[in-house]
Amino acid sequence: MAMTFGIHIGHMGGPLEEMRRLWKFADARGFDWFSVSDHFQESPPRGGDLDCFEAIATLTAAAVETKRVRLGALVYCVAYRNPGLHAKSLTTIDHLSNGRVDCGLGAGWHEIEAKAFGYEFPRIGVREDMLEEYAQIMRMLLDPESPRASFHGKHFRLENAPNNPKPLQPRVPIWIGGRGEKRTLRAAARYADGWNAPYIGPEEWIAKGKVLDQWCEKEGRDPKTILKTVNLGFYLGADAKGAARGEEIFQQHWGALGAERSGWLRGTPKQATDMVAAFRDAGCARLNIAFREGPYDWDALHAFAEEVVPTPSR
Predict the structure, then answer these.
(1) Of 54, 104, 168, 213, which one has the greatest count of Cβ atoms within 10 A?
(2) Phi, psi of 194 (to 5 degrees)
(3) What is the CATH number of the domain that holds 75?
(4) What is the pTM of this model?
């Protein structure tokens, strides 16, 4: 299976017209995926004062302004939304998009944000328990063959709950995102159609993928039934001058934290081809280029689409 490409907004700071232009660009230029992050304030925090649009509302707008790309989030934090309400929201987006919505879930990490907005944010082990319950509930509510759903967990409950209308898709894909080997990858093996890892290079991605395969074997599941994808920060320039600007933005966004991970596209599109090829050779199903606040480098985007992304079939 050939590797495809997607576009992700990791911090949805706008400007809004730039974001709208970005999902329309993805739809027209051969990308098969557009996703958003699920945050209420800038992350990682540089004071939390930058603009940040909400994920569900943003994807709703993208649903009515695109025709091709699948629409998801990498990932919705299970501490932020009741799963019943979440299923209703995604079902609505599925209808608005004519069956193009995906469901991405994660245990969350931004404790500063959660406390600022009054959300309970228990320790990671509890949030991983919540993730497993949440994934099961979403599967039941989004299943067209399940008229009503009941679930009695420690953190979430359903009592004969309907979700009408059902999604247009016979199976809405569930993605679980994260790098945690003990719980997150186990949850992916149990419940997910796909796994996404953010901002890691090929070597670490391959290693995490092997752990996921091991969990699949323990859970009695064929590893080939889970799509594996990656998000890479996009800091490219169309030429040397643009690459220098991209490097400045990278340092502004990440500073010393940038050295802690290797999942960045830096330099020019030509210089990025080796990393793209390494993910392709490793069996990556989709490579998402990830942005933060705009304005974006449109010259670099066009160069990447022309030099790296395959022409869409019509």
Answers:
(1) 104
(2) -155, 160
(3) 3.20.20.30
(4) 0.96
